[in-house]
Amino acid sequence: MRRWLRQHRYALLVAVRRLVTQPFSSLANILVIGLSLAVPIIAASVLVSAQPIASEIPVSPELTLFLDPSTSNSDAVSLAETLRNKRSDAILDTRLITREQALQSLKANPSWSEALAVLPDNPLPDAIIVTLRDSPDLALHANELAQEWRNLPQVDSVQLDSDWVRRLEAILGFIKIGLGMLAIGVALVVLATVFNTVRMQALTQREEIGVARLVGATESFVRRPFLYLGALTGIVASVTAIGLAALALQPINTALARLASQYGAQFSLHLPDPLSLSMSVALVAILAALSARWSVTRNTRF
Question: What's the rounded Cα separation, in Å, for the pair 153 and 145?
Answer without folding.
Answer: 15
